[in-house]
Amino acid sequence: MRPPRVPPMLSALVQSGVLAVDGHVFSRLDACPRCGGKVSGYDTKERRFAVIMDGGEKRPVNVRVRRYMCTDCGQISPAEAPFYPETRLGSPIVDLCVVLSRSMTPGRAARVAECLSLAIDPGTIRAYSRRSFPEIPVDTLFGVPVPRSLLSLSLMATERQ
C-alpha cells in the first residue's frame, strides 16, 4: 500500500501546534464542578498530551494539570484542560483519531497521523472511533480532514512566538 499524501506544510503546522502546549500548565478552576463550592490547590499532575515523531524518534509531549480540593464537599477536581474524560491523549489528538477513522481504516489513519508527525497506534484509533464524543468541527486541508481543535493549537503556537 502506498503511503498517504500529506504535504510537509500540514505536518509542520500540526507539529508546531502540538509542541506549543508542551510543558503548559492548566490551572483554571473557578468552582467545584460537583457543588459549586470554593476550591483550594491540591497538587499538579503531569499528563501525556501526545507523542510526536521528531527526527524518527518518538517524543512525548506532556502538560501539567493542577488539581483542586473543594473546601465544602472535599471533591478533588482537575483544572479545565483539553482532555476528554477517561482518555489518555489530549482532546485535539482524540478528535483527529475520530475524524480520520470516519473515512479510513485504523491502520491507514495511523499512517496519516504518522505523516502528521504524530505517533498513534491503530488500536488507539480503533478504540476512540468506537466511543461517543461531542460533535467535532472539521476542515479539510490539502485533502486531509483535520479537526479544528488541532488547528487551533497552531494558532496558539503563533501567538506564543
Structure annotation, total helices: 5
Give the low-confidence spans: none
Globally, the shape reads: elongated
| Largest sheet: number of strands, sense, barrel closure | 4 strands, mixed
> For the terminal residues, how far apart are their CA atoms?
39 Å
H/E series: HEEEEHHHEEH
* Total DSSP E strands: 6
| Structural domains: how many | 1
Q: Residue share in helices?
A: 25-40%
Q: If you average the pLDDT, what whole number results?
A: 91
Query: What structural class do the secondary elements suggest?
Result: alpha+beta
Radius of gyration: 17 Å
The proportion of strand residues reads: 25-35%
Q: Which short descriptors sum up this protein?
A:
161 residues; alpha+beta; 4-stranded mixed sheet; two-stranded antiparallel ribbon; 5 helices; 34% helix; 27% strand; elongated
